[in-house]
Design brief:
four-stranded antiparallel sheet, 8 helices, about 30% helix
């Protein structure tokens, strides 16, 4: 296959520093910490014309439902400062077509695969998990319980600890026990740590943080909502600080759980920020719409950023920002401390 050449940012001819970029998400080991993000690159077929997708940590597929789904009405996309709103509504071909076409292609291509699944009920999640249990070529399952652009907000299971745990427990019970199950959580909650703990106790092998956050745009010409679905999921650089905050908070309460960080990553330094907060790996999503080679560029830029900071291994940088502050003894001695009598 002849791949298109797309160059953004760093000179692609420059040598990549000798940094061990391998990482793992539970038992799933990967040569790169950079993955695609669900919903932004389908199943990777389109991106493969720009770079070799087998060099990524994994392809995270668009969320698959049990039956074909048409999604929400158009318009579905609205640009925002430093991001975009989408209101796709989980459009897709259904799990049978996914297995026959997309999963078969990914398997033939030799890509590592995390299958993202979604459902309107706990039973639907369970049914999909049982079907996928019979398939080869799946390295992990991402349980999307947090999609904000569905018509029924009651389907956002991640908004409550009990409903989130119920779905995760059902999928974990119905899946191949050797395949890690990750729960994808929403930032649109009061206490994310409580929901993360509930998912971990229900059997989640790891967490994906975060899904898009609910937003809205009004067209000032028509003076009507810009999206047919009224609200949509905000993604892009605008949400990166939210992703960093969520990863940090969950890492504080679950110091050992694997975390796949997602949200606003467009450069190696963006990815490093999520890793320092506690992510073991990072997904690149919205930036591929502008630069389809973004995942590989981020991988290379991240290696440079790690080397510049003295890291020989990516794993040494995970959660590094949580270390205790270093105290400069000389500075303390120089402080003008009053003497009390």
């Amino acid at each position: 296959m002849t791949r298109a050449v797309v160059r953004y940012g760093r000179d692609v001819a420059a040598p990549t520093p000798d940094v061990d970029m391998s990482t793992s998400l539970s038992t799933f080991e990967m040569p790169s910490p950079i993955l695609t993000a669900s919903g932004c690159a389908a199943s990777g077929r389109e991106l493969d014309q720009f770079f070799d997708i087998t060099k990524l940590g994994a392809i995270v597929t668009k969320s698959i439902m049990l039956e074909p789904r048409s999604g929400r009405a158009t318009p579905r996309i609205a640009e925002t400062p430093s991001g975009m709103l989408n209101s796709i509504g989980l459009q897709g071909p259904g799990v049978a077509s996914f297995i026959e076409n997309d999963l078969a292609w990914l398997r033939e291509r030799g890509a590592r695969v995390i299958v993202s699944i979604a459902g309107g009920s706990t039973q639907e999640f369970e049914d999909i998990a049982k079907i996928l249990r019979l398939q080869e070529g799946i390295d992990a399952i991402e349980v999307n319980i947090s999609c904000p652009n569905v018509a029924d907000r009651g389907q956002v299971f991640a908004c409550r600890a009990d409903s989130a745990a119920g779905v995760v427990a059902s999928v974990r019970r119905s899946s191949d026990p050797s395949i890690p199950v990750f729960a994808k959580l929403s930032p649109d909650v009061t206490d994310l740590a409580t929901i993360a703990l509930a998912c971990e106790r229900a059997g989640a092998d790891g967490l994906t943080l975060i899904n898009t956050t609910l937003g809205m745009v009004i067209d000032t010409d028509s003076m009507r909502p810009a999206l047919a679905g009224i609200t949509g999921g905000l993604s892009g650089p605008a949400i990166r600080p939210i992703a960093v905050r969520c990863i940090w908070q969950v890492r504080e309460v679950l110091p050992d759980i694997p975390i796949l960080g997602v949200g606003g990553v467009a450069s190696g330094k963006d990815a490093l920020e999520l890793i320092l907060a506690g992510a073991n790996a990072v997904s690149v999503g919205t930036s591929v719409f502008r630069d389809p080679s973004a995942p590989m560029r981020v991988h290379e830029d991240l290696a440079v950023a790690l080397a510049e900071r003295g890291f020989a291994r990516l794993s040494d940088a995970v959660s590094f920002a949580h270390r205790e502050p270093e105290i400069d003894e000389d500075s303390i001695d120089d402080l003008d401390v009053p003497e009390w009598t």
